């Protein structure tokens, strides 16, 4: 406990001023007060849903039913709160097909898939896999179920991929670039292949807005469901809501502290952190490019000496290293923990494709290798579009649901007892 | 056989002229730790043993040949082997017990391994142990076995799974069998089951019962006679010589029997006592037995009683009465498995149906863990621990349960179409109108008060249930707990406290059909073994092969009935006056009767009150107060091997103890206490088995009887002006062997505190 408070202080000291620190302490106090009290809560009627049980089994939780409730998983888990720990109770809920309880639980997303429980489970029920399957079902529950389901297998993925591929191909066709490359024999300029103002900007803005709206709708509903369940269990409405708790949660995310609590797969934290910062870096690069191109009207491509190129290239390098580490670790741990689900691999490979095609497009451009450069660039755009459109339905949605769950846990004092 | 008889007759003649041979082994460090010449002097000098030899290696062929040659050439017939524990090298020192008495003096385990080598006290201990061994051999006579023609027919009572399998096993082994069933048809519960638990590896799938095939096998077997709609009016006699009067289908016959297998099975706990769980109150609350009948009737469909609709949500409540002090205090072991089986009926009856099992703890013993796992894998089988607070019915007949302390994390309400109460098993040993919380001690019966000149005496008159034994102790067997019969439950499951009658199946403990089949084989083998031993005049478990038996000198019998009352096996009947009547083949040779007899008139050829008393007197008690003497009476079943194990671990203890082995502490006669204390012995410790509810005594009540008798020793000690603490009984289990030094040394220390026995030197 002492260590914990010291750590918490350090964290807020990083976050600069003393006022913030006080604020955070105050927030902690209120959240403790708001913690659920187990007095005179009326018995809840449970309605077992066998269809849901079968869904979990078919979504990656194949060994769900093996659990005999010994709670080894909850004991070995370093991420669970001490009070009502997961994943033992989630295993029982899932066995009984109690969908509502699972969908409205923050704990599903507090799990970071360390797989400590998977390695230690005496009955090989793989609790981590079950939570993963339930998490996937959360994504489907709060978005459009059919799309998530389609992204869970290769056939569906191909079908879904038709949209971004077709859109980019149409864009190329409309600009008349199928007949030949711009400036044949000359410099490669991607903005002449894909017009920034008329194609890139509107296309990706629309895709991004779509994703954001889907996320806001899903995230809000998730928050509401969690709050309903929390209050039903006797919890009081926390004094500070989503936005007040967002800041501290984000600052915690920056260091991936929770992720590092894992025992079996400690190394995964660094890999994920690299990818995480690569995405931040690339997002920043994009914003910077928008500033240059749309506001300052500086034409791309930018010189390699330009700081925007430094940021972009370093981020891309970090990303490719990170995602490669992710893949390697999956193989390293496969014997003990399995290879992971298709749903996971789709995201990993999409990111790999985006990064590889991005770097490839840049290198081919610098090497002056048209038309290969344009083809790779087109693939790059297609994969980004794929990621954007399907972010709310794919594993990518974890960034939103996990964030919402972490904020909720902080708001309701659910993360008390975790060594973060 | 004829030759053997002649040999034994000759041996009897020779036994009249005992000739002692003492053999001392110097191996295993005995020669290095003791002065063996002094030991030889005691044998040939003090006891005038005509033959006394020291061997460097007594248990090898050369050593054994030495003894055999003396037997053949010198006529040695009382053999004292002063070497190692009586529990080892039994194959080497195996001389015909009908011709020769062999006494083992444990110099190795009881003396040199537990004492300082070449010490004066160690030497004195060895000398005393030898003296006692010689006295024992001098006083012993080889037994003359009691052999009579016997019947080898085995009667199996109960025609359910256990009885049918026991009958088949017994018949296959070559015995004639009479299978007695009270119902009109064989098959018992198994015939009423829709499916049974898995009976084959990997123990995952429920299966159809094969009881029909077994019944056909029984009917086709010429060695098995089946009596249905039968009732046993009376069983008189003893193993090998039972006479049973049986009424079957209106005809009464008398059968000569050798042994009996009691497989009368179980009955469900009376659910009418479970009103708090909704039974009898709500239409859709049924017991597991009723569930089985319903599913059998509906050919596998699970339909609820109120409206005959398919039940898609079926709740099972485990421990419906079991592990509840107000109902069945024990775990019935099969109900968890039965509910898992019936849960599979539910999911097979309708693929979208769910079975909700609410348990205290899932208990699926042994390989049935596989069945548990397999059933658990079924998406429709849902399990949670929980405690039912309340059960209600709604307007449409649905059952609503409020359950607390669930694995689901909070108090929940579970709604179900019907509720199955997993009720437990009771033994059919209990009369139908009794249950486990309504039993009289030891025998199930009724209290009877009789006015005598000593005041009102309250005793239990046992109710007849099935055996109707013509025994002094009553018509049925005593029970240990909850009505189940037993005799040393842990080690000897099929044994009962009536020799020749073996309990098998759910009558002796709740069990599955598969366990019952194994039980049936075990009991069949025990019955056959009993007949084989009985035919040779030998004892059954635990003194297997013992050919001695208690003999009573009726001239001085006062008809006090102590022996008939105390015999744990009902071996002694009595006439109206109270004169004991022996039934040799019922006897297990523990000697409890010998210990009980105040007239000291019960004895065995090689085990008498005088023998033990003489051994005590053979101990050399010095006047030196620094050298106290303690006698340790040790039970041969647990205490003796415990000392061996302590010795094997080279644990040291006081050198002032002298060990005398008893068949059972139950044979302890109080006369020994008085006589030994009057010779100057400072204290007596009796080490026997644990007694009480979780007794470990091989003779059930021996150590307890001894303890009761010692309660009366106070008077004797008072008369001698001695402290009561000089005599102490200790309970010891074999796994507590490491406590031996502590027990002995503490006792020595405590008695030392009283000062020396004032009778020293008289």
| Binned strand content of chain B | 15-25%
Low-confidence stretches of chain A: 1-39
How many β-strand stretches of chain A? 1
| Overall pLDDT metric of chain B | 94
Distance between the termini of chain A: 11 Å
Identify the biggest protein-protein contact and residues per side: A-B, 28 and 29 residues
Strand order of the largest sheet of chain B: 7-6-5-11-24
**Outline of chain A:** elongated
Largest sheet of chain A: none
Outline the biggest β-sheet of chain B: 5 strands, parallel
Task: Describe the structure in your own words.
The complex is a heterodimer of chains A (420) and B (762). Chain A folds into two domains: 92 residues, Fumarate Reductase Iron-sulfur Protein, Chain B, domain 2, CATH 1.10.1060.10; 264 residues, no CATH class. Chain A is 66% helix and 1% strand. Chain A is built from 20 helices and one strand. Chain A is elongated. In chain A, 40% of the residues are buried. The N terminus of chain A is likely disordered. Chain B folds into four domains: 142 residues, 3-Layer(aba) Sandwich (Rossmann fold), CATH 3.40.50.2300; 220 residues, FAD/NAD(P)-binding domain (3-Layer(bba) Sandwich); 158 residues, FAD/NAD(P)-binding domain; 155 residues, Rossmann fold. Chain B has 20 helices and 32 strands. The longest helix of chain B is centred in the last third of the chain and has 23 residues. Chain B is elongated. Classes of the chains: A mainly alpha (420), B alpha/beta (762). The interface between A and B is medium-sized, with 28 and 29 residues.
Strand and helix layout:
The complex is a heterodimer of chains A (420) and B (762).
Chain A: H1 2-14, H2 18-33, E1 44-46, H3 50-58, H4 72-76, H5 88-95, H6 99-103, H7 107-110, H8 116-120, H9 127-142, H10 145-150, H11 154-174, H12 190-193, H13 196-232, H14 242-255, H15 268-295, H16 307-332, H17 334-337, H18 342-366, H19 372-390, H20 398-411
Chain B: H1 2-15, E1 20-25, H2 30-33, H3 36-46, E2 51-55, H4 61-74, E3 78-83, E4 101-106, H5 107-112, H6 120-139, E5 154-157, H7 161-172, E6 177-180, H8 211-220, E7 224-227, E8 230-236, E9 242-248, E10 251-257, E11 259-262, E12 266-268, E13 285-287, H9 288-297, E14 313-317, H10 335-349, E15 354-359, H11 368-376, E16 381-385, E17 387-393, E18 399-404, E19 412-416, E20 418-421, E21 425-427, E22 445-452, E23 455-462, E24 501-503, H12 513-535, E25 551-552, H13 562-566, E26 572-574, E27 580-582, H14 592-596, E28 602-603, H15 609-618, E29 630-635, H16 639-648, E30 657-662, H17 670-678, E31 683-688, H18 702-710, H19 713-719, E32 727-731, H20 740-752
Parallel strand pairs in B: 1-2, 1-3, 3-4, 5-6, 5-11, 6-7, 11-24, 13-20, 14-15, 14-20, 15-16, 29-30, 29-31, 31-32
Antiparallel strand pairs in B: 8-9, 9-10, 12-21, 17-18, 18-19, 22-23, 25-28, 26-27
């Amino acid at each position: 406990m002492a260590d914990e408070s010291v750590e918490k202080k350090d964290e807020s000291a990083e976050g600069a001023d003393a006022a913030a620190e006080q604020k955070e302490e105050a927030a902690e106090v209120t959240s403790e007060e708001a913690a659920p009290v187990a007095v005179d809560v009326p018995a809840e009627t449970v309605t077992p849903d066998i269809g849901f049980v079968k869904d979990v089994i078919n979504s990656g939780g194949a060994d769900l039913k093996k659990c005999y409730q010994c709670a080894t998983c909850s004991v070995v888990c370093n991420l669970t709160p001490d009070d009502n720990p997961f994943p033992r109770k989630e295993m029982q809920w899932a066995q009984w097909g109690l969908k509502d309880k699972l969908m409205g639980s923050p704990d599903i997303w507090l799990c970071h898939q360390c797989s400590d429980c998977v390695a230690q489970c005496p009955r090989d029920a793989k609790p981590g896999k079950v939570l993963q399957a339930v998490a996937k079902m959360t994504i489907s529950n709060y978005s459009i179920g059919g799309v998530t389901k389609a992204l869970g297998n290769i056939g569906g993925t191909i079908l879904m991929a038709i949209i971004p591929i077709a859109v980019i191909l149409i864009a190329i066709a409309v600009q008349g670039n199928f007949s030949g490359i711009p400036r044949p024999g000359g410099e490669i300029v991607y903005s002449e292949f894909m017009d920034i103002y008329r194609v890139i900007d509107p296309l990706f803005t629309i895709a991004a807005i779509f994703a954001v709206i889907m996320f806001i709708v899903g995230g809000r509903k998730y928050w509401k469901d969690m709050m309903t369940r929390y209050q039903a269990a006797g919890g009081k409405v926390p004094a500070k809501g989503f936005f007040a708790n967002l800041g501290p949660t984000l600052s915690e995310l920056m260091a991936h502290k929770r992720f590092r609590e894992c025992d079996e797969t400690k190394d995964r934290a660094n890999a994920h952190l690299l990818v995480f910062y690569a995405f931040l870096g690339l997002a920043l690069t994009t914003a910077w490019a928008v500033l240059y191109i749309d506001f300052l009207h500086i034409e791309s491509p930018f010189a390699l000496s330009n700081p925007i190129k430094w940021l972009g290239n370093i981020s891309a390098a970090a990303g490719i290293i990170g995602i490669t580490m992710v893949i390697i670790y999956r193989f390293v741990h496969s014997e003990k923990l399995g290879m992971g689900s298709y749903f996971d691999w789709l995201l990993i490979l999409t990111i790999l494709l985006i990064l590889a095609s991005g770097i490839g497009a840049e290198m081919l451009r610098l090497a002056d290798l048209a038309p290969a450069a344009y083809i790779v660039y087109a693939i790059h755009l297609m994969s980004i579009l794929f990621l954007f459109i399907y972010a709310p339905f794919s594993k990518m949605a974890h960034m939103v649901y996990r964030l919402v769950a972490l904020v909720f846990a902080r708001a309701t004092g659910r993360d008390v007892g975790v060594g973060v | 056989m004829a030759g053997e008889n002649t040999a034994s007759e000759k041996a009897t003649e020779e036994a009249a002229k005992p000739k002692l041979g003492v053999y001392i082994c110097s191996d295993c460090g005995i020669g290095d730790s003791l002065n063996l010449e002094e030991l030889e002097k005691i044998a040939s000098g003090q006891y005038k043993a005509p033959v006394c030899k020291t061997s460097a290696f007594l248990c090898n062929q050369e050593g054994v040949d030495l003894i055999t040659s003396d037997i053949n050439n010198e006529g040695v017939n009382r053999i004292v082997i002063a070497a190692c524990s009586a529990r080892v090298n039994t194959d080497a020192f195996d001389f015909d017990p009908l011709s020769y008495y062999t006494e083992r003096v444990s110099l190795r385990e009881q003396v040199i391994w537990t004492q300082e080598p070449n010490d004066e006290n160690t030497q004195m201990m060895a000398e005393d142990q030898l003296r006692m061994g010689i006295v024992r051999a001098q006083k012993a006579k080889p037994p003359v076995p009691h052999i009579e023609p016997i019947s080898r027919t085995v009667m199996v009572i109960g025609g359910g799974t256990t009885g049918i399998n026991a009958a088949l096993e017994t018949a296959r082994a070559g015995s004639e069998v009479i299978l007695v069933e009270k119902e009109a048809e064989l098959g018992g519960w198994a015939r009423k089951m829709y499916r049974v638990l898995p009976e084959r590896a990997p123990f995952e799938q429920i299966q159809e019962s094969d009881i029909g095939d077994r019944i056909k096998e029984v009917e086709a077997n010429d060695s098995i006679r089946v009596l249905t709609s039968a009732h046993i009016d009376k069983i008189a006699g003893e193993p090998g010589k039972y006479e049973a009067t049986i009424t079957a289908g209106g005809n009464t016959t008398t059968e000569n029997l050798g042994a009996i297998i009691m497989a009368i099975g179980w009955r469900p706990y009376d659910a009418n006592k479970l009103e708090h769980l909704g039974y009898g109150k709500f239409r859709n609350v049924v017991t597991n037995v009723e569930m089985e009948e319903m599913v059998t009737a509906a050919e596998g469909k699970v339909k609820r009683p109120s409206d005959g609709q398919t039940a898609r949500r079926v709740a099972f409540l485990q421990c419906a009465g079991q592990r509840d002090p107000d109902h069945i205090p024990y775990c019935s072991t099969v109900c968890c498995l039965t509910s898992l089986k019936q849960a599979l009926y539910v999911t097979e009856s309708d693929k979208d149906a769910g079975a909700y099992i609410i348990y205290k703890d899932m208990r699926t013993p042994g390989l049935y863990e596989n069945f548990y796992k397999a059933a658990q894998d079924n998406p429709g089988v849902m399990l949670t621990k929980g405690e039912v607070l309340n059960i209600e019915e709604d307007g449409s007949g649905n059952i609503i349960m409020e359950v607390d302390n669930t694995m689901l994390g909070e108090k929940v309400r579970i709604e179900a179409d019907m509720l199955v109460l997993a009720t437990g098993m009771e033994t059919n040993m209990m009369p139908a109108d009794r249950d486990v919380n309504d039993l009289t001690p030891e025998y199930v019966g009724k209290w009877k008060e009789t006015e005598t000149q000593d005041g009102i005496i309250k005793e239990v008159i046992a109710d007849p249930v099935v055996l109707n034994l013509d025994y002094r102790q009553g018509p049925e067997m005593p029970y240990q707990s909850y009505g189940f019969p037993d005799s040393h439950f842990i080690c000897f499951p099929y044994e009962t406290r009536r020799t020749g009658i073996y309990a098998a199946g759910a009558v002796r403990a709740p069990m599955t059909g598969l366990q019952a089949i194994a039980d049936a084989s075990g009991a069949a083998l025990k019955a056959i073994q009993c007949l084989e031993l009985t035919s040779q005049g030998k004892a059954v478990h635990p003194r297997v092969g013992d050919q001695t038996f208690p003999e009573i000198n009726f001239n001085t019998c006062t008809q006090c009935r102590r022996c008939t009352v105390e015999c744990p096996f009902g071996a002694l009947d009595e006439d109206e006056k109270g004169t004991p009547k022996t039934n040799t083949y019922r006897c297990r040779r523990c000697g409890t009767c010998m210990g009980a007899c105040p007239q000291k008139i019960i004895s065995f050829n090689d085990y008498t009150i005088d023998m033990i008393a003489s051994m005590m007197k053979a101990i050399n008690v010095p006047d030196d107060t620094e050298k106290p003497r303690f006698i340790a009476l040790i039970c041969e079943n647990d205490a003796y091997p415990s000392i061996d194990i302590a010795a094997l671990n080279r644990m040291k203890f006081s050198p002032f103890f002298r060990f005398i082995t008893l068949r059972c502490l139950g044979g302890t006669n109080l006369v020994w206490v008085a006589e030994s204390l009057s010779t100057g012995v400072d204290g007596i410790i009796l080490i026997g088995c644990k007694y009480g509810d979780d007794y470990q005594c091989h003779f059930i009540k021996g150590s307890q009887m001894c303890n009761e008798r010692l309660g009366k020793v106070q008077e004797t000690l008072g008369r001698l002006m001695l402290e009561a603490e000089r005599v102490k009984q200790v309970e010891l289990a074999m796994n507590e062997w490491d406590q031996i030094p502590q027990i002995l040394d503490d006792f020595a220390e405590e008695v030392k505190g009283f000062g020396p026995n004032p009778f020293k030197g008289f």
